[in-house]
Amino acid sequence: MIISMRQLARAALFILSVCSAEAALAQNRRNPPPPPAAYSSDELVNSGHRFFGNVTRGLALTIEEATRRWGQPNGYILGQEGGAAFVGGLRYGEGVLYTRNAGDRRIFWQGPSFGFDFGGQGARTMMLVYNMPSTDALFQRFGGVDGSAYFVGGFGMTALVADQMVVVPISSGVGARLGVNVGYLKFTPSSTWNPF
């Protein structure tokens, strides 16, 4: 069997292209894309002011407290949620996740709660997202950190954690709900009635 120079050159080019592609993949595995860039407190307050309306002072105090505790977030969610509880409770919400370099994305959340908790509420919610490596990493369950809730200037703030990420929901709404509970929020890319 005689191999022509043209066939030999094609084979060499094929081998070279396969090796180059493998080297590029190995480089990408060693150097994953950077996480979304962080937002400053002023940017968050301005965005929250447009979303919540004329409640800037309370929002500014709440965001200041969150950034003091956890630093600058690399994403945030603006949305609405509703929930009700009678010992066990449910919470559903939807909004948009904003990031600097990964774009904006529609997002939904839901979750159960259990404890001494009674009532119902509807709220506009801003969620600060910390240490998010990618937008897809948000699609999981986030449990409460020490069950802590803080009230600053008429806004409620809770911290939820999963892996290395922290989500801090800040809400202001209407309704009456009283009690202490434990639970989690599950983020999903599409709407679902299943809170588990």
TrEMBL record:
Residues 1-23 form the signal peptide. It comes from the Bacteria. The keyword Signal applies. It holds the Pfam family EipA. Keywords: Signal. This is DUF1134 domain-containing protein. It comes from Alsobacter metallidurans.
